[in-house]
Amino acid sequence: MNKPFLLVVEDDSAIRNLIAATLETQGYHFHVSTTGSEAISEAVTHNPDVVLLDLGLPDIDGIEIIKKLRSWSLMPIIVISARVEDRDKIEALDAGADDYLTKPFSVEELLARLRVALRRIHYMQSSNAAASVFVNGGLKIDYAGGCVYLNDQELHVTPIEYKLLCLLAKNVGKVLTHTTITREIWGSAWDNDVASLRVFMAGLRKKIEPDPSHPRYIQTHVGIGYRLLRIDEKNE
């Protein structure tokens, strides 16, 4: 299978060279942009499979680039930034980024984040948009029937737990912020009601996780949000 095409947006030459060398070693095809305007032009022209995006560009802030790309594309965007504050991560993820990697980073972590994004692409491409069943490891959601199963045993979930699980499933592999989740589930009046969200998430985890103290399906990003992990069936 051909390697996907990546767009690397980074103005720091040292970081840019590190990313380029890493991708070359792994056999990825990619193009490099050093400004925001060039990145937008390249994204429109080449429609990359994944974008690796620095936020601190010389002409356009990376958050604005995310918003522009999201206005027409669902391509995965992995932010690679020196901004380490939770509010920066949340802003980028709320704008539409799929993941956030802080500098300095290891090449192993970069490649791992990239594999997550590519698995999400594969899932999106292989799934029929109108599919009535979601399957992830031993977890199954029957959208038509409104039922949830774990290892073929039906689970009794509350309406809110079901909505949470469906939202995570439809964004499998993507980090969803607290604000995104609460707004989708309860509306803007509940924006960022993290306390309530944690209560419902804890209840859901007790039902779908074999060991809720060591979650396998739902990953917590402390201070940011949650992600439903794509289970590799080969490791089942």
From TrEMBL:
For the OmpR/PhoB-type domain, which residue ranges apply? 131-230
Which GO terms of the molecular function aspect are on file? cis-regulatory region sequence-specific DNA binding; identical protein binding; phosphorelay response regulator activity
Biological process (GO) annotations held by this record are:
positive regulation of DNA-templated transcription
Compartments (UniProt record)? Cytoplasm
Domain of life, source organism: Bacteria
The modified positions for 4-aspartylphosphate read D54
> Is-annotated flag, keyword DNA-binding?
yes
Annotated Response regulatory domain ranges read: 5-118
Looking at the keywords, is Transcription present?
yes
- Kindly indicate which segments of the sequence are annotated as binding DNA: 131-230
Question: What is a single cellular component term in the Gene Ontology annotation?
Answer: protein-DNA complex
Checking SUPFAM superfamilies in the record gives:
CheY-like
Q: Name one Pfam family in it.
A: Response_reg
| Keywords for this protein | Cytoplasm, DNA-binding, Phosphoprotein, Transcription, Transcription regulation, Two-component regulatory system
Leader sequence range is none
Q: What is this protein called?
A: Two-component system KDP operon response regulator KdpE
What organism is the protein native to? Dielma fastidiosa
